[in-house]
C-alpha cells in the first residue's frame, strides 16, 4: 500500500505539524514604525515568557534588539502599554531615538513608565515612578519641541471608579508632563501635521465604543506646544472615525463609516470630501491604540489595506486623480501599514504565509519578508488546508459568513461514507473577525482529519457598519445562531459529521462556545479557554475600555440587568446534559477566575457531565509561553480523542475527566 492510498478514519491521521513545533517556532509580531531607511517592530517572544522586544532592521539588513536582553542582575524591559486595558502604540522612534512604555515588573508593580533609549544604551526613564498609576500609549514623536505626545491614563484620581484619560506631552530631556486636552472618557490617535503647527486626535465618551461613534478634533499648536482653537471636524455618536493622518502637504485624511463602510475622506477647508468610496472596509475596530491601515508613500500616493467580505487586500490610491488599483500579493490579512519613500511596510499573512513583517517596493510590486513569526518548511506545504468562503442563511432572514477548512493530508484518505468531526471556532471581541492568515492551530487539527469552520457571525468586522452593529442587543443569541447554522450548513452539505460537532473559543469567543453548549443541543463536546461564563462578573471586572460595552451588546445597564442572567452560560449549566467540557484556565486571568471555573465544574460534575481543567501560566486569551502552548494543544487533542473514540497516531497523556467517560468505541 502506498502512502497516497493509506486509509484511516478522520481524526486519526499522523501529522508532521506537531504541538512542539508550533510552541517552539511561533512568536507574535506587532507594532511597526519607520524611521528613515530603518524599520522597527515588536516581537512577543514565548521563549522569553512573552516579553515584548523592539527590533530594528537597518538598511543593510542587520537586525538589532533595541531593549537590553534580560539577564542575571539586569533589569528586564518589555515594550507593552496597558492603556484602556488593551494597550497599543507602545513605542515611537525618530532619528534613531526610541521612546517606549516599559511593562516589566519593578518591585511590587508593573512599571508602565516612559523611557528613552538609543541602541546599545541603558534605557533612561522620562516619567517618575508612580507605582504603575500612570499608563501611557499611542506615542507620537514631536522632535520640533523635543517631546513625545501620547495618551495618558491616570489611576491616582479615579472618576466613578475609572481612571482619567488625557492627551499629554512628555519632555524627552526631562520629566515634565504637560496636559494638552482632557475631560473626555477616551482619547486616541494624536497626530501632528508635517510642520508641527496642527494636531488631530480622536475622542469619545461612554457608552460608545470607538467603532460605534467617535469624534475627530483638530487644533492649532503654538511654538510652546499649547493647543488653540480646537474644533470638531467629523464624527458623532453614530459615525465612527478611524486613523487621522496628515499628508506630506499638510492635508488631513481619515477613515469614516458615514456611508456604512469605513472609507477614506479628506478635510478640505471646513468640508469633508470623499477620497475613495467602495463597499469595503478601509478601517478596523479600534481595539488597540496605534492601529494603521493606510500610509502615504509619496505626496500623492497612498497604500491602503482594505477588507472585502472578511478578507484583507492591498491597494494603491492616487489621491489627486482618485485612481485606485489593487496590488497582487499573497497576503489576505494586513495590519500596521506604514509608509516610507515609494515603500510600504506592514504585518501581513496569508493561507500559505505566516504573519510577517513585510517591505513592499511600490515600483516593482515585489514584497520582501523581513521577519516571519514562524518558519514554513517546504515539506509541510502539502499538509496545509486552504480556507474556503462560506456564506449561509441564518435566523431573522439574515446571512452570515465563515471560513471553512477541509481535512487535508497528502498521505491519507477516510473510509468511504465517513464524515469528519467539525471544530467550530469563535473569535473574540465580539467585534473582531476571523483571520485567513496561516494559523498553525487550525492546521494542527485539519492535518489530523478534522474539519474546521471559523465563523464571522453577525457583529464581526469586515462587512460594513450595519452588519457590525446588528449584534447589539443580540449578543448570546445571533452569534450563537450563526455558529450553529454554519455547522448545520456543513452537515447538510456532507462536509461534517452531525454527531461530532465540537466548539472551541477563548475569552468572549469562549462565551459563544459555552452558550452553544448551554442553549443549543448540537455539540458533542467543547473547549473553553479562559472563557467569559458569567456576564455579571464580566461587567463588574471590565477594564475602562469595555466598562459600558454591555450597554451596547445587551442593553443599557442596570435596566437590562436580567439579560445578564438570562444569557450567562454559568447560570444555565443544567441545560448541558451530555457534552463533556475541557477548561483551559490561565492563572493570570482576571475575568474568569479559577474559582469560577472550579464552581462550574462542580455543578457540571454533579449533573454527570465529564469535565477537566488544565491550568496554564500564560496570558488569559492564549498561552504566550512555550510550554503552555504545547501542553494546551496536546490536551485538547487528547480530550477530543477520549470523547469521540479516536485512535490517535501519537501517544498523548489522557485528560483526567471526572466523572470518567464510558468506554468509547474506537475508530
UniProtKB/TrEMBL annotation:
Domain of life, per lineage: Bacteria
What are the residue boundaries of the Peptidase S9 prolyl oligopeptidase catalytic domain, all occurrences included? Answer: 438-645
One protein family per Pfam: Peptidase_S9
Checking Gene3D superfamilies in the record gives: alpha/beta hydrolase, TolB, C-terminal domain
* Record-given protein name: Prolyl oligopeptidase family serine peptidase
Per the UniProt record, the source organism is Archangium lansingense
**Native organism taxonomy:** Bacteria, Pseudomonadati, Myxococcota, Myxococcia, Myxococcales
Amino acid at each position: 500500500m502506498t502512502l497516497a492510498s493509506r486509509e484511516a478514519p478522520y481524526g486519526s491521521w499522523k501529522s508532521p505539524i506537531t504541538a512542539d513545533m508550533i510552541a517552539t517556532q511561533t512568536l507574535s509580531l506587532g507594532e511597526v514604525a519607520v524611521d528613515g531607511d530603518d524599520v522597527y517592530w515588536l516581537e512577543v517572544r514565548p521563549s522569553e515568557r512573552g516579553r515584548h522586544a523592539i527590533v530594528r532592521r537597518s538598511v543593510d539588513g542587520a537586525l538589532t534588539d533595541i531593549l537590553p536582553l534580560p539577564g542575571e542582575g539586569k533589569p528586564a524591559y518589555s515594550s507593552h502599554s496597558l492603556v484602556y486595558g488593551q494597550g497599543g502604540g507602545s513605542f515611537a522612534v525618530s532619528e534613531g531615538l526610541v521612546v517606549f512604555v516599559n511593562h516589566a515588573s519593578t518591585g511590587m508593580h508593573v512599571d508602565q513608565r516612559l523611557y528613552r533609549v538609543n541602541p546599545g544604551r541603558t534605557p533612561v526613564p522620562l516619567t517618575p515612578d508612580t507605582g504603575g498609576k500612570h499608563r501611557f500609549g499611542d506615542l507620537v514623536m514631536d522632535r520640533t519641541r523635543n517631546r513625545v505626545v501620547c495618551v495618558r491614563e491616570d489611576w491616582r484620581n479615579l472618576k466613578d471608579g475609572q481612571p482619567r484619560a488625557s492627551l499629554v506631552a512628555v519632555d524627552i530631556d526631562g520629566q515634565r508632563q504637560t496636559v494638552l486636552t482632557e475631560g473626555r472618557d477616551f482619547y486616541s490617535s494624536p497626530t501632528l501635521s508635517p510642520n508641527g503647527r496642527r494636531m488631530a486626535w480622536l475622542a469619545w465618551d461612554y457608552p460608545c465604543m470607538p467603532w460605534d461613534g467617535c469624534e475627530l478634533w483638530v487644533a492649532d499648536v503654538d511654538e510652546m506646544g499649547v493647543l488653540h482653537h480646537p474644533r470638531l471636524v467629523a464624527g458623532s455618536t453614530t459615525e465612527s472615525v478611524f486613523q487621522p493622518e496628515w499628508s506630506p502637504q499638510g492635508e488631513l485624511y481619515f477613515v469614516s463609516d458615514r456611508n456604512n463602510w469605513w472609507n477614506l475622506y479628506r478635510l478640505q477647508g471646513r468640508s469633508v470630501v470623499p477620497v475613495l468610496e467602495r463597499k469595503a472596509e478601509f478601517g478596523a475596530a479600534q481595539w488597540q491604540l496605534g492601529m494603521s491601515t493606510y500610509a502615504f508613500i509619496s505626496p500623492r500616493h497612498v497604500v491602503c489595506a482594505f477588507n472585502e467580505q472578511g478578507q484583507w487586500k492591498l491597494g494603491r490610491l492616487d489621491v489627486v486623480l482618485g485612481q485606485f488599483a489593487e496590488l497582487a500579493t499573497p497576503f489576505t490579512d494586513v495590519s500596521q501599514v506604514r509608509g516610507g519613500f515609494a515603500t510600504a511596510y506592514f504585518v501581513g499573512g496569508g493561507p500559505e504565509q505566516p504573519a510577517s513583517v513585510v517591505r513592499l517596493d511600490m515600483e516593482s510590486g515585489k514584497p520582501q519578508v523581513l521577519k516571519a513569526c514562524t518558519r514554513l518548511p517546504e515539506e509541510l506545504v502539502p499538509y496545509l488546508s486552504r480556507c474556503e468562503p462560506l456564506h449561509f442563511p441564518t435566523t431573522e432572514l439574515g446571512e452570515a459568513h465563515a471560513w471553512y477548512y477541509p481535512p487535508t493530508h497528502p498521505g491519507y484518505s477516510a473510509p468511504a461514507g465517513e464524515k469528519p468531526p467539525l471544530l467550530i471556532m469563535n473569535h473574540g471581541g465580539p467585534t473582531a473577525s476571523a483571520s485567513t492568515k496561516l494559523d498553525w492551530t487550525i492546521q494542527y487539527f485539519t492535518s489530523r482529519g478534522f474539519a474546521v469552520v471559523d465563523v464571522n457571525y453577525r457583529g464581526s468586522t469586515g462587512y460594513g457598519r450595519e452588519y457590525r452593529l446588528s449584534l447589539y442587543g443580540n449578543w448570546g443569541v445571533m452569534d450563537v445562531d450563526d455558529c450553529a447554522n454554519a455547522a448545520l450548513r456543513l452537515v447538510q452539505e456532507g462536509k461534517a459529521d452531525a454527531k461530532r460537532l465540537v466548539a472551541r473559543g477563548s475569552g468572549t469567543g469562549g462565551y459563544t462556545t459555552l452558550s452553544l453548549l448551554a442553549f443549543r443541543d448540537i455539540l458533542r463536546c467543547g473547549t473553553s479557554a479562559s472563557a467569559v461564563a458569567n456576564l455579571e462578573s464580566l461587567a463588574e471586572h471590565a477594564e475602562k475600555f469595555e466598562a459600558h460595552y454591555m450597554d451596547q451588546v445587551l442593553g443599557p445597564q442596570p435596566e437590562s440587568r436580567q439579560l445578564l442572567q438570562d444569557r450567562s452560560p454559568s447560570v444555565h449549566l443544567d441545560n448541558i446534559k451530555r457534552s463533556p467540557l475541557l477548561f483551559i484556565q490561565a492563572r493570570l486571568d482576571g475575568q474568569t477566575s479559577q474559582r469560577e471555573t472550579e464552581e462550574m465544574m462542580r455543578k457540571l460534575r454533579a449533573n454527570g457531565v465529564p469535565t477537566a481543567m488544565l491550568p496554564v501560566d500564560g496570558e488569559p486569551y492564549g498561552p504566550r509561553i512555550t510550554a503552555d502552548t504545547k501542553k494546551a494543544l496536546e490536551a485538547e487533542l487528547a480530550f477530543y480523542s477520549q470523547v469521540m473514540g479516536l485512535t490517535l497516531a501519537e501517544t498523548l497523556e489522557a485528560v483526567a475527566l471526572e466523572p470518567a467517560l464510558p468506554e468509547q468505541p474506537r475508530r
